[in-house]
Amino acid sequence: DAGVTQSPTHLIKTRGQQVTLRCSPKSGHDTVSWYQQALGQGPQFIFQYYEEEERQRGNFPDRFSGHQFPNYSSELNVNALLLGDSALYLCASSPRDRGLEQYFGPGTRLTVT
Amino acid sequence: KNQVEQSPQSLIILEGKNCTLQCNYTVSPFSNLRWYKQDTGRGPVSLTIMTFSENTKSNGRYTATLDADTKQSSLHITASQLSDSASYICVVSALNNAGNMLTFGGGTRLMVKP
């Protein structure tokens, strides 16, 4: 049973570009959350998806958007990239009815130059 | 505003020694508190999860405590090993209508030296 998987592992983009990150949840999990972790900081909550809808959102601008597919996988899109968007982007999945069980993926390291 | 503060920010100990990491929080309404271990460049891995009624939980050499009255938690690592070198993150969950909302601390970076 694969855990949470994310792709790509690393990504380098230029300011102003757009990026899409992908996440496949652990088998049996239907809720996906996205986090941004700057170097040396704790993760910051971006948003959470359940039943293909955004259910909760942290303090991130509209440049950050997402999507959840019927198979529960999810995408994080960031438009008009800024240098400050450089970070490790973590995806976490959990079963809706057992919210204590949250598993993190390995993350995608995004560098904006 | 929900906040989680961890101390110390960083810590260096010798292999075999014990250490204790601290977490103070102001999160409401409290649902649960989790400690994660995060190796550099990797995703966090859960060590313990405690709900309001639990005040101690162990996972091998890791023991977490929770004082819900003072809103404090600690993570005690016994007989440290080189592989314990990592960041340790305290995460507090608030329960709202949409489910659990997690607030992360900034982490304590632990280095275990031989």
Walk me through what this model shows.
The complex is a heterodimer of chains A (113) and B (114). Chain A has strands spanning 5-7, 10-13, 19-24, 31-37, 44-50, 53-57, 64-68, 74-78, 87-94, 103-104, 108-112. By secondary structure, chain A is mostly beta strands. In chain A, strands 2, 4, 5, 6, 9, 10 and 11 form a seven-stranded mixed β-sheet that branches. In chain A, strands 1-3-8-7 form a four-stranded antiparallel β-sheet, with no helix packed on it. Chain A starts with a strand and ends with a strand. The model of chain A has no long low-confidence stretch (mean pLDDT 92). Chain B is built from no helices and eleven strands. In chain B, strands 2, 4, 5, 9, 10 and 11 form a six-stranded mixed β-sheet that branches. The mean pLDDT of chain B is 92. Chain B is globular. Classes of the chains: A mainly beta (113), B mainly beta (114).
- Helix- and strand-based class of chain B? mainly beta
- Count of helical stretches of chain A: 0
Please state the overall shape of chain B, judged from the principal axes of the Cα atoms: globular
Biggest β-sheet description of chain B: 6 strands, mixed
Structure described in brief:
The complex is a heterodimer of chains A (113) and B (114). Chain A is mostly beta strands. Helices cover 0% and strands 50% of the residues of chain A.
Key descriptive features of the protein:
heterodimer; A: about 110 residues; mainly beta; seven-stranded mixed sheet; four-stranded antiparallel sheet; B: about 110 residues; six-stranded mixed sheet; five-stranded antiparallel sheet
